[in-house]
Design brief:
alpha+beta, about 20% strand, 4-stranded mixed beta sheet, peroxidase activity, Glutathione peroxidase, Glutaredoxin
């Protein structure tokens, strides 16, 4: 199954898929509101503003699997993201990224190795997967800031 064929739902319950973003580079990030890495929302939003008009989208995927750091309802998550960080990028419904209930999107994404050659489970909140316009995936671990040189370089390479 292609990444583009996997059904997804927005935070408000609307059906979507990566096919809706096929002509864009998409940074898929599992996010959480009560994590030490939550301030990365600010960098993600800056990337969205900087590159959005050039064919780039951040896609936030709330996840409560890491120390219960995303306990909120869909409304609470949306309110927190917009009020605290001015998030304008799309958010998906709360999703499991590891384990038995892992979403099919993450079944595919976690097959991709990071810069050290390690694939497998998502390590923590704010792990990033850049899905290029060609469907190729580049993986960045949670502590890699959204605006780190390697992330920005990978995004810019997709925007030609």
């Amino acid at each position: 199954m292609s990444l583009y064929d996997i059904p997804l739902k927005t935070l408000t319950g609307e059906a979507v898929s990566l096919a809706d973003y096929r002509d864009r580079a998409v940074l898929v990030v599992n996010v959480a509101s009560k994590c030490g890495l939550t301030p990365q929302y600010a960098g993600l939003e800056r990337l969205q503003k900087e590159y959005g008009e050039r064919g780039f989208t951040v896609l936030g995927v709330p996840c409560n699997q890491f120390a219960g750091q995303e306990p909120g309802s869909a409304d609470e998550i949306q309110t927190f993201c917009s009020a605290t960080y001015g998030v304008s990028f799309p958010l998906l419904e709360k999703t499991d990224v590891n384990g038995e209930g892992r979403h099919p999107l993450y079944t595919e994404l976690t097959k991709v190795a990071d810069a050290e050659g390690e694939a497998g489970d998502v390590q923590w909140n704010f792990e990033k997967f850049l899905v290029g316009k060609d469907g190729g995936v580049t993986r960045f671990r949670p502590r890699t800031e959204p605006e780190a040189a390697e992330v920005v370089s990978a995004i810019e390479a997709q925007l030609v």
